[in-house]
Amino acid sequence: MASDAAVSSPAAPQPELSVPVPLPPADSIPEPKPQAPAAAAEPHIALLLPLDSKVFGRHAEAVRDGFLAAAKVQGGGAALPVRVYAAGDESRATVETYIKALAAGATLVVGPLTRSGVTAVVDSAAALVPTLVLNVPEGRGASPPGIYMLSLQIEAEARQVAQRAWQDGFRRAVTINGDTPLLARIHQAFVEEFTRLGGAHVIAYAFTPDPEGLTRIKKAVDTGTVDVAFLALDFPRARLVRPYLGWLQVYATSQVHPGAAGALAGFDLSGVRFLDMPWLLQPDHPAVMVYPRDRGDDIELNRFYALGIDAFRIALVLLAGKADAALDGVTGRLTLGGNRQFARGLTTAQFSDGKLTVVRERP
User: Fold this and answer.
1) In terms of Cα–Cα distance, which of 277, 232, 280 is closest to 256?
2) How far apart are CA 344 and CA 333, in angstroms?
3) Structure letter (DSSP) for residue 242
4) In the prediction, which pLDDT does 140 show?
5) Contacts with 250 (C-beta within 8 Å, 6 or more apart), sequence order
6) In this model, does residue 265 exceed pLDDT 90?
7) Residue 362 main-chain phi, psi, to 5 deg
8) 216 near 196, Cβ under 8 Å?
9) pLDDT, tens digit, for every residue of 32-49?
10) Can you tell me the distance from the alpha carbon of 316 to that of 23, in angstroms, rounded to the nearest whole number?
11) Contact 80/36 with Cβ under 8 angstroms?
12) Which CATH number does the domain 155-277+346-359 belong to among 3.30.565.10, 3.30.365.10, 3.30.470.30, 3.40.50.2300?
């Protein structure tokens, strides 16, 4: 059952903190429509996360910790408290917790995190104050007024890879599709965007670790009918395929990031370009190094921690009525796009002799 009770651990911040947050002039905040809160209600930022979920609990904790870390770094001026509301996996309970936050005086809500939770809140029409959801609702129709979106959606990343390949001058692609639902979604998103831009999807291969199947891929490459390859694969699978792609320029998504294994483990991926967030590729970037790190080498949890940081930063611009302002975020260059969804402009990196190097963008 979802609740706003405190959820804490010895290594994590308390989930309800009063963190100094710049409070913009009242006339810059959209007028909320709910009934007047009880006398004891206090204006605050509500952070609604599935902290009680057995599946997503660790991811929710990472988002929470990143959000509160950013609040400590950037807080100042008049104080607006941040309250964390814990929920589980049940959509109905998530909506009930959202409504509870409004009744307690929430001026802005950040969350939910899961797609089902986001869909439930969007469909409920309960979002009567500015709300930054951390996933994309099912259906992708027009969102109600006041709903903003920031997510780590992998399909958006694959589309950016297609755009990068097109900008780099490539027109005829061979793709290698992985054998999981996630990798299939990556493959579909890349192909749709690359062909939309005018590129040709010449041939697709299903991933196989079998040498005979990999040799067939090599023979297709050697015919010269393609000029670029896209790997809808993760790190272990990509390492097997890359040596068979010869001279081709190869692109992939952040799924090929070597993580704790280190770039040296990706020596077989030499020349492969992929997109990922500055938090992982540019730790010395001024917009990144200001925030503390506490997730070690766990790539997945680092991504959600970074999501929490950028969620707080966007919360500030929403409160200030400046949603159109671009931000150098730790998850990417943040700009508000269609349907009030924040796009994340990612950083391009390339494997080179056992090292990861950042590839400068074309002017």
Assistant:
1) 232
2) 5
3) G
4) 65
5) 228, 229, 230, 231, 242, 271, 272, 273
6) no
7) -70, 145
8) no
9) 455 544 446 899 999 999
10) 8
11) no
12) 3.40.50.2300
Minimal CA–CA distance to 151: which of 59, 232, 234? Answer: 59
Sequence-distant (6+) residues with CB within 8 A of 322 are none
- Banded model confidence at residue 295, pLDDT cuts 50, 70, 90: confident
Report the DSSP pairing between strands 327-328 and 333-336: antiparallel
DSSP at 135:
S
Distance CA 84, CA 13 (A): 11
| Closest C-alpha to 193, from 165, 231, 233 | 165
Residue by residue, DSSP assigns 82-123 as EEEEE--S-HHHHHHHHHHHHHTTEEEEE---SHHHHHHHHH
Question: Judging by DSSP bridges, how do beta strands 355-359 and 347-352 pair with one another?
Answer: antiparallel
Q: What is the pTM of this model?
A: 0.87
- Return residue ranges of the chain for CATH 3.40.50.2300: 16-149+285-345, 155-277+346-359
